Amino acid sequence: MTGWCGKILRIDLDSSATDILRPDPVRYEKFIGGKGLAGSFLRDRITLAWDDPAAPLLIMTGPLVGTAAPTSGRTTIMSRSPLTGTVTDCSVGGRLGFHLKRAGWDGVLITGRAANPCGIVIDNETIKLVDAVELWGADTATVFQRLQKRDNSVATIGPAAENGVSYASLMVDRHHAAGRGGIGRCFGAKNIKYLVVRGSGRVSVHDKAELTAAREEILRLAAASPVLMGEHGIARFGTGALYDLMDARRMMPTDNFRRTRFAAAPGLGAVAYAKRFQPKQHGCMGCHIRCKKVTGHKNRTAMPEFETMSHFTALIGNTDPDLVVRANDLCNRLGMDTISAAATLACYRELEGEIDLAPSLLALLEQIGTGSTRLGRELGEGARAFARKQGRPELSMDVKGQELPAYDPRGAYGMSLAYATSTRGGCHLRAYPISHEILRKPVATDRFTFSGKARIIKISEDLNAVVDSLTACKFIFFAAGPEEYARAFSAVTGMTITAQDLLEAGERIYYQERLMNAANGFDDRDDDLPARFFKEPGSGSAPGTPPVDRAAFLEARRKYYRIRGLDAQGRPTPEKTRQLGLA
């Protein structure tokens, strides 16, 4: 095999035993790698509780990782979510996938629960389980300071995962978070404090000249993309470049999604952060976009991403950018998803009458991450659980239990449908209709209509499933497309495939996740939005943000179900399951 290593490391923490899985080549062909390959191993155990020792925790690379293919350094982490009960996966940057692949592994499958806190050390083909009791309770910065070297990758949880926060994250190489769905808590439940990987081998490529040609084509397209490489693009300002755009479109979630316009937003965008903090560029292995921004001083601090910038200002009524940077850094050190943390605090703030959270923000985050107070522990369960305990379930802005990110669905109807159909709950990355509704890539669509959106969302979900299985970065697809990556995939693996072949694999991978959720009882009752978006308008000047028409939304969802091959309740059908080779 080329591209793939053909080996997956299996670790049983109950017995401390390791062995090697050698998947059939057909599995690689059907599921590609990353998200797809991880799902193929998770599916037969998805009904296990997330904290059942037998429940698998999967870390998977893709066939392009470790090669010259652009943005090919990402990694998929997958399990069942402690926050939602759905399948959950995170595509995370850094160097983890690069080192794992160069160590000779396509991925790691972990089961069991260690008797005591442990670390997993992978040095090429040498595997060690080491005692981590001394580091249990340490924040992520301490772990990185102790273990990070120039020639390795380190992934670690912080106190939040150890203390039962349902949206705890896994931090990778200091600045990269596998944040959503509580994947960090899955590590904590298995008593895994950290993972250290060093790989010194090489990934074999079928046709290096053809890969070079594919790479040059992708880089040319990226260079011509204003969204990526322009004066106000992501390469220059990071994802924070979206902040002013969301403000201009009057769809910035404000005051727990009660409004869509934050008066202070014009002074809190990426340009203001650049002037104030003068951040430096940082990026994932194999990526030239380098969208991550970090402060330039000795103890480099990650600058907040767009979602964090928005939710720690508009969503909770804060106007202090220094507080946003400190809150982001604290969440990273505690190992806690910033989107869910801020959204849960926004729910709490509305319940308390829109109090000023700024004076107590850092203390509240500390209480959540350490579980040191009853309020902190309750907020650590997430917005849905917290709101229900307070007798106000309508104040939780979530889908399937996962808090919504920083795009108000009243301002982009494709986004509202994508939120509802997302297999991991409130998520903008399953389909990311912002690309065409706001950024006008690949073509512009009317953001205030559902016309055509059902099919667009389905195709986008399929494409993003491919991206997360290759495992590449979604940003590069603002410029390149499946045609260019099919060429790179063929050059690496020696398989002659087309863009349509990749999209068919993406459909299989996404449908597999619908199958997994259906096995746990999810259906059309879960593919829905909070009532607020159908009853209350947003705020701001023209074009305004009226409530979403519920009848139109339900009709769009019905069309989506038909196009996706689901029944009227959003459940997979035996016919489509067989057609996709998933029976």
Question: Can you tag this structure with a few keywords?
Answer:
single chain; 583 residues; alpha+beta; Aldehyde Ferredoxin Oxidoreductase,  A, domain 1; 6-stranded mixed beta sheet; 25 helices
What topology emerges from the helices and strands here?
Elements: E1 8-12, E2 17-21, H1 25-31, H2 34-42, E3 57-60, E4 75-80, E5 87-92, H3 96-102, E6 107-111, E7 118-123, E8 126-131, H4 140-147, E9 153-156, H5 159-162, E10 170-172, E11 176-178, H6 183-189, E12 192-198, H7 208-223, H8 226-229, H9 234-237, H10 242-248, H11 270-277, E13 280-282, E14 292-294, H12 306-311, H13 321-334, H14 338-351, H15 361-370, H16 374-379, H17 383-389, E15 398-399, E16 402-403, H18 413-421, H19 434-437, H20 453-470, H21 482-493, H22 499-519, H23 532-535, H24 550-564, H25 574-579
Helix pairs in contact: 1-2, 2-20, 2-22, 7-21, 13-15, 14-17, 18-20, 20-22, 20-24, 21-22
Description:
It is a single chain. The protein is of the alpha+beta class. It has a domain at 8-198: Aldehyde Ferredoxin Oxidoreductase,  A, domain 1, CATH 3.60.9. The chain is 39% helix and 12% strand. The protein has a 6-stranded mixed beta sheet, sandwiched between helices. Strands 8-7-12-9-10-11 form a 6-stranded mixed beta sheet, with helices on both faces. Helix 7 packs antiparallel against helix 21 (482-493). The longest helix is centred in the C-terminal third of the chain and has 21 residues, at 499-519.
